[in-house]
Amino acid sequence: MQIVFDPSTVRQSKIGSITGVVYFDFDSGRGFPGVGWNDFVVVILNWWIAALQKILQGEKAELRFMDGPYWISVVPQGPTILLQCTEDRDGAGVLYEVDVGIESFKRELLSFARRLWNAYRQANIQASELDEIKKYLPN
Q1: In this predicted model, what pLDDT tens digit does every residue of 50-96 receive, in sequence order?
Q2: Which among 20, 25, 44, 45 is positioned nearest to 35, based on CA atoms?
Q3: Which residue, 7, 25, 31, 40, has most beta carbons within 10 Å?
Q4: Tens-digit pLDDT profile for residues 16-46
Q5: DSSP per-residue codes, 30-87
């Protein structure tokens, strides 16, 4: 499992919203919600970091995407988590499930945070939401 983030797609709108390509890539080659998915990357990363705190405490959590009716339900199962990739449309529901190690997931999420932070610094983007991300990054 990898969180794919393309720093070259980072854009800040006139009203301050920050978007970019981010999606989950599973070993099977499936992208969720889809390969090249564009979303509000700072907002969802902050949501996902909050969800990580719950997951590390053994609680269920959801990794939501802001654009579209997509999320990943996370069910802790000891040293692993079950990721249930969900689409909220008629006839959809859980599209597929993947088991991932908790530590592997945590490393991947924090790697995404670091890559996002670096992309914003290079693009000289200023946003208060970035301050939340900074506190989770190792020095």
Answers
A1: 999 999 999 999 999 998 899 999 999 999 999 999 998 777 789 99
A2: 25
A3: 40
A4: 888 999 999 987 678 999 999 999 999 999 9
A5: -EES-TT-EE-HHHHHHHHHHHHHHHHTT--EEEE-SSSSEEEEEEEETTEEEEEEEE
pLDDT > 90? residue 134: no
**What is the CB neighbour count within 10 angstroms for residue 73?**
16
Residue 58's identity, in one-letter code, is G
Domains and CATH numbers, the chain: 2-127 (3.30.2450)
114: three-class secondary structure by DSSP: helix
pLDDT value at position 15?
Answer: 84
- The candidate with the shortest Cα–Cα distance to 39, out of 8, 72, 11, 2, is 11
Query: H or E element: which one contains 130?
Result: helix 129-134
Residues 6+ apart with CB under 8 A from 88: 69, 70, 71
Report the distance separating Cα 106 and Cα 123, nearest Å: 26
Measured between alpha carbons, how far is residue 20 from residues 38, 96, 119, 124 in Å? 5, 24, 10, 15
